[in-house]
């Protein structure tokens, strides 16, 4: 079975008994990934925000509300 590539540098990743940084190839790549999460380079989509945007009137008017 071929080794999986590191998600950061694409080098082959040794199996867990030989590599405590799994699924990364090294502690460095693991730290790079953490830095990307902390720097907000990765984002998890907010489904609730998407659903709320779909409910807004498309013409920008406030229907049903007296001003």
UniProtKB/TrEMBL annotation:
Keyword field: Metal-binding, Zinc
Domain of life: Bacteria
Region: Disordered, residue numbers: 41-67
Keyword presence, Manganese: no
Biased composition (Basic and acidic residues): 41-50
UniProt protein name: DNA gyrase inhibitor YacG
Species annotation: Corallococcus praedator
């Amino acid at each position: 079975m071929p080794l999986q590539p590191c998600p950061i540098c694409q080098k082959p990743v040794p199996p867990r008994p030989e590599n405590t940084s799994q699924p990364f190839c090294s502690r460095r790549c693991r730290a790079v990934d953490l830095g990307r999460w902390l720097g907000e380079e990765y984002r998890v989509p907010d489904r609730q925000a998407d659903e709320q945007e779909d409910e807004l009137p498309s013409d920008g008017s406030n229907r049903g509300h007296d001003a």
